[in-house]
Write a structure and sequence with these properties.
The chain is α/β, with parallel strands linked by helices. 41% of the residues lie in helices and 17% in strands. The structure holds UDP-4-deoxy-4-formamido-beta-L-arabinopyranose.
């Protein structure tokens, strides 16, 4: 069975392609390489022995997207990752975010509808919850007004999907990610650095490698055990595996409704200092960091209630923080050797 993975040379996309191939699926990738590299298709082949089919174009191009679905009208499902996802950048460039993230989604949904492809998995985010009033946060938690255009594109996308499902044959599963980190244990794929990292873990590994002088810890005056903000970090391979489970659920018609939503987290929250300690323990490297003021737009603390995902999907995050840190560090070193940057 053939699955389309949009954004398939990206961080989570490439890990998901590996798990799909491992599960016997044929994969075709669409990516515009705006935030990834074509070589990742070869890296995927280095892990699985199979190079995925790969088409490079922008999903905001309606004609090209329509032509793709006409050619691949035998798809068993679509996993849609392709989107811009930097919170800060979205504040500076809202129109680019709304155009890219929403037009891509609309073109994919139209292509599916016109070719009677009905199984759609959407890459969503816990960002839709904002700062939850109750922790851990379950799928029933209220959606808060978005704190950024990026977060708003995820909320609007879920609404577009819900409305489309209600009047077409489309079935959809939205997966709300918490904080994906780490890399495949082969160190053949991982998070590609694009400029100065916004996210915590790539900044940690680049600091450990000496590319950054020190890590800035954004605030230690939060109402948490050590004052630094808490997140639910989840290993990217655990996250990728959940996508395969979701696709299988749809193909085997096990869904309980036409639009299902699942939180993909571990259920455990770690503070920034917890993550730093875990990195130091996993690598034996003392990390250089400084406490700074809070980063505007950051929420204080969030972690998932994964009970529904665990029960309904029969999926559970298995990899601990130490493995997340060790794999991130291994990738950081391998990446430099492999790509020489
Ligand atoms: C984690 C914690 C920072 C960098 C974002 C998006 C979310 C998702 C994941 C796409 C926070 C602190 C960070 C640094 C730090 N992206 N930090 N120093 O902001 O939780 O989530 O990325 O889906 O949608 O919002 O992730 O890794 O940026 O930050 O102290 O140099 O680490 O303040 O508490 P975040 P993050």
């Amino acid at each position: 069975m053939k699955i389309l993975v949009t954004g398939g040379t990206g961080y989570i996309g490439s890990h998901t392609v590996v798990e799909l191939q491992r599960d016997g699926f044929e994969v075709v990738i669409i990516d515009n390489l705006s935030n990834s590299r074509a070589e990742i298709a070869d890296q995927i082949a280095a892990v699985t022995g199979v190079r995925p089919a790969f088409e490079v174009f922008d999903l905001t191009d309606r004609e090209k997207t329509a032509a793709f679905f006409k050619k691949h009208n035998d798809l068993a499902g679509v996993i849609h990752f392709a989107a811009s996802k930097a919170v800060g950048e979205s504040v500076e460039q809202p129109l680019m975010y709304y155009t890219n993230n929403l037009c891509s989604l609309l073109n994919v949904l139209e292509g599916m509808k016109n070719n009677e492809i009905t199984n759609f998995v959407f890459s969503s985010s816990c960002t839709v919850y904002g700062q939850p009033d109750v922790l851990p946060v379950s799928e029933e938690a209220p959606i808060k007004p978005a704190e950024s255009p990026y977060g708003n594109t995820k909320q609007i996308s879920e609404e577009i999907i819900r409305d489309t499902v209600s009047v077409t044959e489309l079935k959809a599963i939205a997966l709300r990610y918490f904080n994906p980190i780490g890399a495949h244990d082969s160190a053949e794929i991982g998070e590609l650095p694009q400029g100065v990292p916004n996210n915590l873990v790539p900044y940690i590994t680049q600091t450990a490698l000496g590319i950054r002088d020190y890590l800035r810890v954004w605030g230690n005056d939060y109402d948490t055990h050590d004052g630094t903000a808490i997140r639910d970090y989840i290993h990217v391979v655990d996250l990728a595996k959940a996508h395969v489970v979701a696709v299988q659920r749809m193909i085997e018609s096990k869904m309980k409704s036409d639009f299902e939503i699942f939180n993909l987290g571990t259920g455990t929250g770690y503070s920034v200092l917890d993550v730093i300690r875990a990195f130091e323990k996993a690598t034996g490297i003392k990390l250089n960091y400084k406490i700074m003021d809070r980063r505007p737009g950051d929420i204080e603390k969030v972690w998932a209630d994964p009970a529904f995902s665990n029960k309904e999907l029969g999926w559970k995050a298995e990899r601990g923080l130490d493995e997340m840190m060790a794999s991130a560090w291994k990738w950081e070193q391998a990446y430099r050797e492999k790509f020489g940057e």
